[in-house]
Amino acid sequence: MPQLIVVALVVLVLTGCQPGAGADQGDGQDSASMNVADVSLPPTGGQFDYQLGTAYEFDGGLDVVVRDATAEPAAGAYDVCYVNGFQTQPGEADLWLDGNEDLLLHDAAGELVVDPDWPDEYVLDPSTEAKRDRIVDILGPVITGCADAGFDAVEIDNLDTWTRFTEPSTGLIEEDAALALAGSYIGLAHESGLAIGQKNAAEATTAARELGFDFAVTEECAAYDECGSYTDVYGEQVLQIEYTDNLPDGFDAVCADPDRAPLTILRDRDLVGPDAAAYAYEQC
What we know:
The chain is built from 7 helices and 13 strands. By secondary structure, the protein is α/β, with parallel strands linked by helices. Strand 10 (215-219), helix 6 (227-234) and strand 11 form a beta-alpha-beta unit. Helix 2 (129-149) runs parallel beside helix 4 (175-191). 47% of the residues are buried.
C-alpha cells in the first residue's frame, strides 16, 4: 500500500445522509447523491493502469489510471485518486495516536487492532456518528485535495473491514457503521465534483451502489470467482486488477471470463514501475 500524507486537519460541516442499505437513518449526508450529474465516470475502453506503488509515464499514454493521493494525476487520462478510508496509512501513526486514538479500533482487551496483512496499518473505528464525523474531519481534506489536484474520481480502500473484523475479542466492525462512513465519503466526493469508486467488498455491491458509489474497483475478483458480483451491479463501470502471484488459471482465462470488467489488467503485487525487475503488466 502506498504512503498517503494527510495535509491538514480541518473541520467539515456535514449534513444528514441519504441512507443506503444498512446505513443509519439520518447519518452521513443528504448530499450523497448531490451533484452526481456533474461528475464524470471512467471510460470503459482504452488503456488502463493501476499505479499505486509507482506513478510513471505509460508508453503510448493512458485513458484511465489510478494513482495515490500524493501523486500527480496523469495528463490526458481519467485519473482516479486512491484514498485509504477505513485504515491508517504507513508512517501516519502519530496523526491518529496523538489525540485521536479513540478513532482506532480496539479489541476486547483494549489493544489496538492492526491489519494482519499490513501490520503497519491501524484499523479505523466507525462505530458511532461522532467518531465517523471526526474521521471525516481528518480524511476529508485528502478527498477534497484530490479534486484540487485535478483528479476525476476517488477510490476508497478497505470498505471490507467489516468482513474481516467480526469478533469483539479481536476487534469488531459492524456493516451498518462501515456503510454509514462510506456514505459520508460519497457525499463529500460528489460535493467536490468527484466520482467515487467502491473498492472491493463483493458482499456489499448492491448496498454500496444504492448508497451512491458510481463505479467499482476490484482486485483479484477472477482469482476468487466473484467478478459477476461487480459487473452485475455496476455493468461496465468496473476497473479490474489481477496479480501475478495469485492467478490460478492464467491471465488468458481471466480475459475469457464473460463476467470480467471491460478494463482488466494484470499487475505485479507491489505495483512497481517498469524499471524494476518485478514489474508486470498486461491488459485484456
